[in-house]
Fold each of these.
Amino acid sequence: MSAYLIADVRVVNRQKFDLARAPIRAFIEAHGGVYLAHGQEPEVVQGGWHPQRMMLVEFSARENVDAMFATREFGEMRDELVNMAMFDIVVADGIAASRYVREYPSPVYAVSDMRIVNRAAFEDYRVQIHSAMREHQGRYLVLTDEPTTMAGNWTPPHLTIMEFPDRGVAMAAYTASRYQEARERGNNAAMIDMVLLAGGQAAA
């Protein structure tokens, strides 16, 4: 099953970081990573999460991600990046492989960091949200209580990633009355931070 690497990146030396981007990408792709989205400032949909840059990469199996992090090359690259950028990186097991990245020119990914405060209410909210999203071609790639922090201090207690064909479809889903009704019911279930990442050409 697919696994997903999500990085929240804060650049501290733009010149050095820009020089390092191509080697980083080559290294990740050499270990089977497929870039779904990266580089742009994410669009905030809900909550107070304002990441400067994000990166979303898909691997065909969790073993590939773990093997990449275990390499000597990764250790050397991590040491070099200390003076260029700060990385918060988590890895999550997927429940589906990305599809729209291969079918549409500009897919969009909704990444949600959730803190559940009422599990029973949250489960009801999740069912309602899932149904509302499917009406707009939204599909879950990640839905987990167990993401793994690989670097930095980001430790989301519940993480979801949803894929849409494009931004227009994603925003139609999030502004639909059915979603808004479910969101109102979910206010007492969880604290949710959500951002949209542009894929396709934006991830090239």
Note: The longest helix spans residues 14-30.
Amino acid sequence: MIAKKKRWWQHSARFILRLVGWRLVDDTPPEPKYILVGAHHTSNWDWAIGFFMMAGLGLRPRWIGKDSLFKGFAGPIMRWLGGISVVRGARENFVGQVVDIYNNSKELVIALAPEGTRDYVDHWKTGFYHIAKDAHISVAMAFLDYSKKICGIGGYFIPSDNLKADMKILREFYEEVVGKFPEKQGLVRIKA
């Protein structure tokens, strides 16, 4: 993929990050479609810093929301903010819906927090993994390390057929990353 020219807003976002003491890491996948895993999600501040991080990387990632968020006057606003509506529920196949969205897109980056919350959890949800595996796309590892004030995308991999081995890659990457509130960091593991 040919490197794209940085736009004024990328330069501005990088300047703002530097101004507040953050350093940006850019090891994004070269392909135009991948899933972006963000960890450790422990604070509402993650959104603000993550916004400038994404802008600095030239990304406008999308996010997944339940279909009820997109009803009425809120729908156009949610879509403008990057939201993608999916039907959640026992009868619906969430992973399949998102895989279909990837398969019908030429370029798409969806950001997910596998912890699913800003509070402590003892395991990660694995939907992101199954989406990446079934859509044949990379998993990119985004992070905000508050202890070192470094943020960005620190690498990526294509999922194998071995979930435990792939979770080991994620665990090794995120074990040194410190969230805003370390006591709220979830464990990088699958449900036992």
Note: The helical segments are 8-19, 45-56, 74-80, 94-103, 127-135, 163-174.
